[in-house]
Structure formats: structure tokens, C-alpha cells
Automatic annotation (TrEMBL):
GO terms for molecular function: RNA binding; zinc ion binding. The lineage of its organism: Eukaryota, Viridiplantae, Streptophyta, Embryophyta, Tracheophyta. PPR repeats lie at residues 103-137, 204-234, 235-269, 336-370, 441-475. PANTHER family: PENTACOTRIPEPTIDE-REPEAT REGION OF PRORP DOMAIN-CONTAINING PROTEIN (PTHR47926:SF537), PENTATRICOPEPTIDE REPEAT-CONTAINING PROTEIN (PTHR47926). InterPro entries: DYW_dom, E2_motif, E_motif, PPR_At4g14850-like_plant, PPR_rpt, TPR-like_helical_dom_sf. Belongs to the PPR family. PCMP-H subfamily. This is DYW domain-containing protein. It holds the Pfam family Eplus_motif. Transmembrane segments: none annotated. NCBIfam families: PPR. The keyword Magnesium does not apply. Keywords: Repeat. GO terms for biological process: chloroplast RNA processing; RNA modification. Residues 656-748 form the DYW domain.
Length: 748
């Protein structure tokens, strides 16, 4: 009957004003033994929102339950507001302030609520206020205060609270004991954590697991495993802790091997186990084991578990089975923001940026609010697609929700935006975000240095590197990739040598393939082939196809056919399916007029069944990314585009432009070669930009391959004829075309 009354707003005693203002309490009350089962408080178990909560509070007042010197009714309300997922911490605080002399239980509920919130510092503040008010904390107080110190990374105050624990003699309480270990471990104070553990006469699986978690999160996985092996009694949680430790340290194979040991020992996994195992499968590409986990989930009736479903989507996507991931995602009855993030992250992981953007658009259309993980995940897809308008929308969304994201203090999100703006061609916007950051991480400096290098602003990149080191940041291997790239794009051979040797001698870095690649490219483009070959011979790692490809590219610039043939042979031996190397060698032969060799290479490509990667250029107009292939006529405005191409060619010819046909791969009439060049993908994208945007608008295009010499020369002149700045990103760098000039100074 009570439930029926509750379901009808018109007859329910709860259907009263929801704007009740709590007031101070008197000390008259009904018998306290009557209160626990009294219907208003019992209704808390069915409460799902703040409106219903306020109605229950109103009913408590109307029935006189708030006049209770045991404070039971208010304690129950405050507990619900502070701790329940359907509660409201500010409302708990307003109730708290109505109590004249809150007892220990009420203080503990509020402290617990803040410890679980996004403001754990207030838990510590209320702990202090509690003691100032003359109340002594107990074994229910300390676990949540210590949890707050762990979340805040505040070991100093944690040690002071540890002193209170010892003074009050509650250090042997199992929950307090475990909380102390957790607090020290999460603050990196593993010596203190171990000391607390060793001194306790009561070591249970919970305290063992707390220390195992601490070792794992600090990278000491061998210590974690040793402690696990010493455990007299192990439960599934302790097995999970070791698996999680391996995963945190990217030891995915070890994590999966340990899980297999767990199965052999007949320890029944739980949901947390399977989530960790799915993560390890996703990051190691272990699709076979991932399929087994999927079967286990279905066999145990957990297929509807949203967290496991999200883990499966993530696993299938990152293991390359995008079709199965997409089917699972589409068939999910309920999708959380984590579900959308998993699908976006999976597409990004496999380089399917267009599909990632489409999922993001669907997410917005479904009125799902993106969180920080969503934005950090989608920005690389924006970057790689050159979708600047969408990137600006995301930036505006972040600014609009400033309290939520705190951009100037959020290093990960700011760094992603810097990278996005740099790769979408707006390097000055990237610099504005960098300059506005209150807290800069090494990743932020690296993103800005790499962005400046990519755009050819070499002096700015090198000055920023000096500023970074002067501010106390120690460069890592990624920093030096950015610096060496800057030297490479600027043709600064001497500076490149200086930074390369500084990396080795001053910072004790062993060069990686990326560092060698920058140096080989720099030396090769400068024509210093003897030095480049010596550096390759002295490499501490085996040169890969990219290293020999850099040398091959330099041979194209300098017409070194003999050396090109040697470099190409090395590439073919390492990467027999590398079509780009065959095409590059063909270009070199074509430029030298060796058409028989061009034909031989083309026959070899055909015999091997290789397909040349087609040149593809994209341009974003009105928030839509349009893609063009060479000679493409599939666009809905194809007729207008080719009319503009003809107009461009006429104006180029009148300006005295002579097409460079030396790299056309066919031995054909000169007129046909010129027509083939005229229909390159970047020319089509520029033509579309000219007919689709207002005069004076900057045109931004992205190309998947290196821009050819003919198109580079033509685009310089187009920028002058049409009075447009054209910003083009090719496979290697950015080109800013303006007034007939290019920012690369024809060095690329």
C-alpha cells in the first residue's frame, strides 16, 4: 500500500514542495527504536534523484522525525546524500549545518562523502574541523581521510594523520592498517608502506594486496610478484593486483601468462580480472585469448555487463577486428561514454581516422556528453584528417565547460590541442594554447617544438628548446626527434650534428631509428653521402627500411642513380612489399631518362601484385572533409572543379610557368605528361578550395604523399595569382605558400 501511494504523486505524502530549507533541530523526539523501520527513512532505499530525496526530507520533517536527540533520522539522510550515487553532497552539507552538535557518525559520513568526491581536500579539512570541535576520530574516520591524502598525493599530511592513528591506538584495525599502506604506496613512499606492513601482527590478504598494488604502480613488478608468492592465502583480488601491475608497466605478455596460471590454479576470475585481461589482449594484439575471454563472459551470463562489453569492443578494435568491434558496439542496448570512447580509440589505433570522426559525430547526435578521454581520443583523428573546423569546435566546447576541463591546468588536453592545431596548419593557435598553459609537461614542450619544426619555423623551435632546458626540463628521446627534425627541415647540417652528439654525450641517450633517420635525411639532402653512409655503418641498431628510404630520397634530389640502386636493394630486402620504394626508384630512373629501367621496375611491381599508394589530398570546407585522388572525377562538383583546373592552367601558362615533367613515370608525349601532372590530387583539392571559399580565405590541404616538385612550383604561383595563402601538409612537413613563395625555401 505504501509503494502504491508513493507511485501516485496526487495521493503520495511525498508530493509536497521540494524546496524545503533545513532548520535547526530541537531535542524532543519519538522513541529511537521506532526510527530505523519508519517509512520515510525506508523510502531512501528506492530514492533515485534529488527531487525524491527532498520529498523524503520533507516527510521526515512533517512526521516529526527530525526532532530526535539521537540524530538518527538526520544521520541517515546525511549518509544517503554524502555516499549514495543518487545523493547530493552539497545537500548533505546543508543538512550537516542544521545539526547543533553533530556526533561522530555524522562527521564520518561527511568526511567519507568528500573523500569519494572530486574535492578530497575537503575531507582533510573536515577531519581537522572535527578535532577542533572536540570529537575524537575513530577507525571509521581514518580510512577515508587517508584515502583523501592518497588521492591528493599529500604524504606530509598523511604522516601527521598516521601519528594520530598511533596515538589513538587504532593502527591494528585492518581497514586503518590497509589504508595506511595504500596512502604511502600511492604517494610513492614504499619504504613507509613496507614498514607499516612489516610491523603489523595482522597481515591479511587485503594488506598484502595493498602493498602489491603499491609495488606494481611504482614499476617494481618483481617485488610485487615476490610478495604475492609469499602470501599464505591468496584471493582473486590479489591475483588481479599482480595482473594489473604487469599491465601498468606494459608487460602484457607477462600479464596474460600470469592469468593463465590463475586459470590453471582453478581461481575463479571476476569482472575486474576479465577487464584487465581484455586490456592486455587489446594492447598485445592477442585476439585468440580475447576470443576465449569473450566465450567465458557469455558462458557465465555476463554478456550484458556494460564494462565487459566496452572492454570487448576495445579489444576487438585494437586487435584489428574492426568489423566485430563495430557489430558489438551497434548491438549494445545501452552505451556509456566509455563505449563511444572505446570505438573512437579503436578506429584511431588502426589509423581509421575518418571512421573515428564519424563515430564522434554519431555520439554528439545521440546527446552523449564527451568527457576528457573522448576529447583526447578524437583530437588525433582531427589532426590526421586536417579537420580544423571540428578541432575549433572541440576547443570551443572545452572553453565552454572550463570548470569541468580546466584547460590551462590540464596538461594532457592542452597538449592534444597543441598537436591538433599544429597538424591542422594553425601553428599560431597552437602557440597561443602553449603560452596560456599554467602547468606545462614535457609532452607539451615536445608537441610545441615538433609543431614548429613541422612548419619550418626552425629558429623558434630551437629557441623553445633552449627555454625548456633553462626552465629545468630534461629532454627525452621525443624532444630530440623534434629538434633534429627542425634541423632537417631547415637544412642546418652543423646544428644537426651538434644536437645529435649532445643527445649522446650530454644526455646519455642511445640514438633510436627516428634520430638516425633525421640525420641520414639531413646529410643526404645536403649531398653528404659519404658521411651518411658512415653514420649508417656506425648505427647501434640495424637500419630499417625507413633509413635506406631516406637515403634513396636524397639520391632523387642529387641524381645519384648508382647509390639509389644500392639503397633500393636494401629497402626491397627489408620490405619487399614497399611500393613507395619502387615508385621512388622509378622516379629516379625517369628523371635520368632511363625508360627501360622504368619499364623494368613497373613490370616488377605488376609481377609482385603490388599496388601503388594513390596520391590523396583532402580539404575541409564547411566542416566537411573532401578527399581527392589523382585524376578523380567522383566528386559531385567534378565539372566545376575541372573547369577551375583549366582556368588555373591557363593562368599559369600566361604567367610563364613551364611544367616539370621529369618525374612522370611514363615515356609519353610531353603534352600528355603535362596533363597527367595537371590532375594531381593536390591540384584538384586547391581548385575545389578556390570555387568553394570566399576570395582571400586561406586554403588548407593535406596530402598523404610527398608533394612533387611540379605541384610545389605551381602552388607557389597559384598563391600569387589568386592572392591566397595555401597551407599544405604533405607526408613530411608543412608548406606555407604565399605571394609566390614557400616557407620551405624550396628545400624539402
Amino acid at each position: 500500500m505504501a509503494m502504491a501511494a508513493f507511485s501516485s504523486p496526487s495521493s503520495s505524502p511525498l508530493a509536497v514542495s521540494s524546496t524545503v530549507v533545513p532548520h535547526s533541530l530541537s531535542v524532543t523526539d519519538p522513541p529511537s527504536q521506532f526510527l530505523p523501520n519508519h517509512s520515510p527513512l525506508a523510502l531512501l532505499s528506492t530514492c533515485k534523484d534529488i527531487r525524491t530525496l527532498k520529498q523524503i526530507h520533507s516527510l521526515v520533517i512533517r512526521t516529526g522525525l527530525h526532532h530526535n536527540n539521537t540524530q538518527f533520522a538526520l544521520t541517515k539522510l546525511i549518509e544517503f546524500c554524502a555516499v549514495s550515487p543518487f545523493g547530493d553532497l552539497p545537500y548533505a552539507l546543508s543538512l550537516f549545518h542544521t545539526v547543533e552538535n553533530p556526533d561522530q557518525r555524522i562527521w564520518n559520513h561527511v568526511i567519507r562523502g568528500f573523500a569519494l568526491s572530486e574535492s578530497p581536500v575537503l575531507a582533510v579539512e573536515f577531519y581537522i574541523r572535527m578535532m577542533v570541535a572536540g570529537l575524537e576520530p575513530n577507525n571509521h574516520t581514518f580510512p577515508f581521510v587517508l584515502k583523501s591524502c592518497a588521492k591528493l598525493g599529500n604524504a606530509h599530511e598523511g604522516k601527521q594523520i598516521h601519528g594520530h592513528v598511533l596515538k589513538l591506538g587504532v593502527d591494528n584495525d585492518p581497514f586503518v592498517h590497509t589504508s595506511l599502506i595504500n596512502m604511502y604506496a600511492q604517494n610513492g613512499e614504499l619504504g613507509y608502506a613496507r614498514s607499516v606492513f612489516d610491523k603489523s601482527p595482522k597481515r591479511d590478504p587485503i594488506s598484502y594486496t595493498a602493498l602489491i598494488n603499491g609495488y606494481g604502480s611504482s614499476g617494481l613488478v618483481d617485488e610485487a610478484r615476490k610478495l604475492f608468492d609469499e602470501m599464505p592465502v591468496r584471493d582473486v583480488v590479489s591475483w588481479n593486483a599482480v595482473i594489473a601491475g604487469y599491465i601498468q608497466n606494459r608487460l602484457y605478455e607477462e600479464a596474460l601468462a600470469f592469468f593463465e596460471d590463475m586459470v590453471r590454479m582453478r581461481v575463479t576470475p571476476n569482472v575486474s580480472t576479465m577487464l584487465s585481461v581484455l586490456s592486455a589482449c587489446a594492447n598485445s594484439g592477442s585476439l585468440e585469448l580475447g576470443n576465449w575471454v569473450h566465450s567465458w563472459i557469455e558462458d557465465h551470463g555476463l554478456g550484458s555487463n556494460l564494462r565487459l562489453a566496452n572492454g570487448l569492443v576495445d579489444m576487438y578494435a585494437k586487435c584489428g577486428d574492426l568489423e566485430r568491434a563495430k557489430n558489438m558496439f551497434d548491438n549494445m542496448e545501452t552505451k556509456s561514454v566509455v563505449s563511444w570512447n572505446a570505438m573512437i580509440g579503436g578506429y584511431n589505433h588502426m589509423g581509421c581516422y575518418k571512421e573515428a570522426l564519424e563515430i564522434f559525430r554519431r555520439m554528439l547526435e545521440s546527446n552523449v556528453d564527451p568527457n576528457e578521454v573522448t576529447l583526447v581520443s578524437i583530437l588525433p583523428a582531427v589532426s590526421n584528417s586536417g579537420a580544423l573546423t571540428l578541432g575549433k569546435w572541440i576547443h570551443a566546447h572545452i572553453d565552454k565547460n572550463m570548470n569541468k576541463f580546466q584547460l590551462t591546468r590540464n596538461s594532457a588536453l592542452s597538449t592534444s590541442l597543441i598537436d591538433m592545431y599544429a597538424k591542422c596548419g594553425d601553428i599560431m593557435a597552437a602557440k597561443r594554447i602553449f603560452d596560456s598553459m599554467e602547468i606545462k609537461s614535457l609532452a607539451s614542450w615536445n608537441a610545441m617544438i615538433s609543431g614548429l619544426a613541422m612548419h619550418g619555423f626552425v629558429d623558434m623551435a630551437l629557441k623553445l628548446f633552449s627555454r625548456m632546458t633553462n626552465e629545468g626540463f630534461v629532454p627525452d628521446d621525443i624532444t630530440f626527434v623534434g629538434i633534429l627534425s627542425a634541423c632537417n627541415h631547415g637544412g642546418f647540417v652543423e646544428l644537426g650534428r651538434k644536437y645529435f652528439f649532445s643527445m649522446v654525450e650530454d644526455y646519455n641517450f642511445t640514438p633510436k631509428l627516428q634520430h638516425y633517420g633525421c640525420m641520414i635525411d639531413l646529410l643526404g639532402k645536403a649531398g653528404l653521402f659519404d658521411e651518411a653512409e658512415i653514420l649508417i655503418d656506425d648505427m647501434v641498431v640495424n637500419p630499417d627500411g625507413a633509413i635506406w628510404g631516406s637515403l634513396l630520397g636524397a639520391c632523387r634530389l642529387h641524381g645519384r642513380v648508382d647509390l639509389a640502386e644500392m639503397a633500393a636493394k636494401r629497402v626491397f630486402a627489408l620490405e619487399p612489399e614497399n611500393t613507395g620504394a619502387y615508385v621512388l626508384l622509378s622516379n629516379i630512373y625517369a628523371k635520368a631518362g632511363k625508360w627501360d629501367d622504368v619499364a623494368r621496375i613497373r613490370t616488377r611491381i605488376n609481377d609482385r601484385g603490388l599496388e601503388k599508394v594513390p596520391g590523396c589530398s583532402s580539404i575541409e570546407v564547411d566542416s566537411v572533409v573532401h578527399e581527392f585522388l589523382v585524376g578523380d572525377k567522383t566528386h559531385s562538383q567534378s565539372d566545376e572543379i575541372y573547369e577551375m583546373v583549366d582556368e588555373i592552367d591557363d593562368l599559369l601558362e600566361k604567367s610563364g610557368f613551364v611544367p616539370d615533367t621529369s618525374e612522370v613515370l611514363y615515356d609519353m608525349e610531353e603534352e600528355w605528361k603535362q596533363e597527367a601532372l595537371s590532375h594531381h590530387s593536390e591540384k584538384l583539392a586547391i581548385a575545389f578550395g578556390l570555387i568553394s571559399t570566399k576570395p582571400g580565405t586561406t586554403i588548407r590541404i593535406v596530402k598523404n604523399l610527398r608533394v612533387c616538385g611540379n605541384c610545389h612550383s605551381a602552388t607557389k604561383l597559384i598563391s600569387k595569382i589568386f592572392n591566397r595563402e595555401i597551407i599544405a601538409r604533405d607526408r613530411n612537413r608543412f608548406h606555407h605558400f604565399k605571394d609566390g613563395l614557400c616557407s620551405c625555401n624550396d628545400y624539402w
